[in-house]
Every structure is written in C-alpha cells, then in structure tokens.
Amino acid sequence: MNRFYGTGVAMVTPFQTDGQVDYDALKKLINYLIDGGVDYLVSLGTTGESATLNKEEKKQVWAFTAEVVNRRVPLVAGIAGNNTHETVAQIKAFDTTGYDAILSASPHYNKPTQDGIYQHYKAIAEASPLPVILYNVPSRTGSSVSAETTVRLAKDFKNIIGIKEASGNFELLNQLMRDKPEDFLVISGDDPITLQMIAMGGVGLISVVGNALPAKVSGLVRSCLSGDFKTAQPVHYSLVEFTRLMFTEGSPAGIKSALKQLNICGDTLRLPLVPVSTATAEKIGAELQKLR
C-alpha cells in the first residue's frame, strides 16, 4: 500500500478543439508528470471529465494511459457512479492490465443513507479484482461518507485500502484518524489542506494542481511526509492563490487553462463545462510566472 504514499495526480483528459480525445497531448501530460516526480497517477477521475466520456472512450483512454505509463509509476482508475449495479458491472468488465487500484467516489445525486453508502461500497469491494480507494467529496456528490461508515468499510473489507478525503470537515477527519485501522490510508483530496491533513496522519495527496506543477506539489508533499514543515510551509503558502484560481470558475477548467499556458494541452472541455474567462486565464498565467 505504500505505492499510494506521496503525490498522486488526478489527470485531466486533453481534448482536441473538435472534442475528441487528444492522445498526443495525453502522452505529453503523462510524461510531464512522471518527469516532475509524482508518485502515482489517477486516470479518469472527476478531473478527467469521466462523466462526459462514453464506455468505449474510457476503455481506450485507460488502455493508452497504461501503455504510456509502462509501469513507471502506479496507476489508479476512477470508476464510480450512482447506479451500484452498473458501477459493479463496469468494475467487472475493467481490463486491469497496468493498473494497481480503483478509485470510486461515493454515489452522487441520490443522497443515500450511510447504510446505503456502505452497501454500495460492499458491492464494489466484493466485485473488484483490485484494491479499492474510497472517495468522499460531498461538494460534488451531495452527501458525505461519515467517519463511522469509512471505518466500518475499512474493517470489513481488506481490499478497501484507503480513502481520498475531500470533505474539508476536520471534525470528521479527527474522528477518522482516531478510529481507522493503522494501515488504512487517508489521502487528501483537497489541495489547499494537504499540509494540515498530513500533519494529522494523512499519507499524501491526490492533486488537481499537480497537473500543472508536479515538481512543486510533490516536493511539498515529500517535505510534509518527512516532518519538515518548516520547509513545507512557504511552499504551501506560495500555492494558495494559484490553487484558488484553479477552482474559481470550476474544475478542470482552471487547470486546463494552466496546462494550455504551459503548452502541455489545450483548454477544451466537454459541455456542460466551458473554459475559464480571459480575465481568470490572465490571472492564472501571472501566478504561473511566479511559481515556475
């Protein structure tokens, strides 16, 4: 499980101006991130606009990503949904070649009870051929996975190895860190509070910002994990404004604007998402100049 210590990056999916997947840019992004020192990659999470890709496109992106990564770093596939039966079917059909785990966000829109969330993840755990990382992101799903539910899942299913926690709820985090099994991984899913979560016992970050600044973000996480918060703090504060801009007009619009200005990929998104405004893009560019 130490494969998922450190910095993971939730990769964007580059698109050509006509909306088709830009595989040349995806290859460029993958190599940029690995060369930047990240520890693992996540393909087709929320940041990858997975909700807008059809099944065949997902299969192609996953296969291409595994081929380009070529086992240089661990690889995680984002497979989630609010239809448990369909999510389980996707996991059973998934070609695991080159992949090390599945990241699965809790069901969105339906607002299940805690027992419903437990039963959803129980079905996933029983079907998955790979270790499972839970994902709690209430700002997107409309419900939160409680500390009690996470601990229950961690204790009941050995292949549920961790959680990407993006609730920002420190009361929940305090309880989770206190009660979880010792080897259960708590990973920050929220760039701005990574330093604080690692100080509490978190094992790293799955980052959006790291798409654009892999060396800086992975350096920050390494400093935190080594307990060198004196080195980490100025880096943390230097990223505050850039990170805020990444989400000002929605994600991944902000990070795609940054990647366009870095000449990694274009800023095309699939509807209903649209690129950031010119004013925000200019602010992103100014911050990039400070940080590079």
UniProtKB/TrEMBL annotation:
Q: What is its EC number?
A: 4.3.3.7
Q: So which domain of life are we looking at?
A: Bacteria
Q: Name one GO molecular function term.
A: 4-hydroxy-tetrahydrodipicolinate synthase activity
**A GO cellular-component term linked to this record:** cytosol
Q: Write out the catalytic residues in the record.
A: 135 (proton donor/acceptor), 164 (schiff-base intermediate with substrate)
> Matching SMART domains, A to Z?
DHDPS
Quaternary context: Homotetramer; dimer of dimers.
Functional description taken from the UniProt entry = Catalyzes the condensation of (S)-aspartate-beta-semialdehyde [(S)-ASA] and pyruvate to 4-hydroxy-tetrahydrodipicolinate (HTPA).
HAMAP family given in the database record = DapA
Q: Which family does it belong to?
A: Belongs to the DapA family.
Q: What is this protein called?
A: 4-hydroxy-tetrahydrodipicolinate synthase
Q: What gene is behind this protein?
A: dapA
